[in-house]
Amino acid sequence: MLIDAGLVLEGGGTRCLFSAGILDRLIENKIYFKHVYSVSAGAYVAISYISKQKGWSEAALLDTVKTNKLFSWWHFFTRGSVTNIKLMFDKIPNELLPLDYDEFFNSGQDLTMCLTDLKTGDPVYINKYEDKKHLMDMCCASNSFPVISRTRFVDGRPMTDGGMADAIPIRKAVSDGVTKNLIILTQQSRYRKKLKTSKLITTRYFWHKNFVRTIRERPYKYNADLDFVEELVYQKQAIAFYPEISLPKLITRDPKRLRELYAHGYEMGKTVVEQTKEFFGITGETC
Q: How far apart are CA 224 and CA 233, in angstroms?
């Protein structure tokens, strides 16, 4: 069933395996949202959701993490990025675990990814993709975390991780006229970002004054967005779900922790499906 409503996915590195577990449960129940808003790693798991490939994100992130090939400091020192870009955005989706691009482009769903413009510090939203290479290039740009990833260029403009400017793209969904949303977060419900600025990032990009301003304002914006999510839930304009177990760091290579996180999301997916059906008025049995 295609629901004319929004699905909003926060980023969070490997913590997005929690989101992947929930999305796999939605795939099982054939629940698909017409409007999908995502950022960073949330965009990576969103692609397999729209492609209707249950288990793809789990296999892509866990089977490669297990062999320490997806994230490594050796790769950072030799190629300039902690993430193995070639593996994650080319070899996995095109060779090792082929994505169903035909299904993606013919699904009737639209995927909006957020990137951050280094020159302006503003979010840039991409929702049109020329082909599968362009799709994965935009996903790569949205996942290019500052300092530990190379800057990506889109139409000659330097881009970095979308989560720097808009970590939870719920306001974008609302501004687009999407009045009801399912929101999946990757931090616990009472989490609020500490009001401090990464000196490493602001020093590394000191000549990008607007981007530095964005980084300094980021904790305030992120916490305000969390408050906005809670307000939407209170007003019955959204339902939101958060992980309820201890969380790993942004990037971790511990397969046990990551499998626990995916399993937690998959188990919570039962509740997500039940509440989604009730909230959006969907009938039918739950898997």
A: 14
Taking CA atoms, 208 is separated from 122, 187, 211, in Å, by 12, 29, 5
Q: What is the DSSP string of 159-192?
A: EEEGGGT-SSTHHHHHHTT--SEEEE-SS-TT--
> pLDDT (tens digit, 9 = 90+) per residue, 209-262?
999 999 999 999 999 999 999 999 999 999 999 999 988 887 787 889 999 999
Q: Is the dihedral of CA 99, 51, 232, 283 positive or negative?
A: negative
pLDDT digits (tens, 9 = 90+) for 49-67: 999 999 999 999 888 776 6
Classify 229 in phi/psi space as left (phi over 0), alpha (psi -120 to 50) or beta. Answer: alpha
DSSP state, residue 109:
-
Question: 10 Å Cβ neighbour count for 221?
Answer: 16
- Report pLDDT digits (tens) over 128-144: 999 999 999 999 999 99
Q: Which two tokens stand for residue 175?
A: 């501004």
Query: Which residue carries 């070639």 as its tokens?
Result: 86
φ, ψ for residue 226, nearest 5 deg: -65, -40
Q: Residue 85 is encoded by which pair of tokens?
A: 């870009």
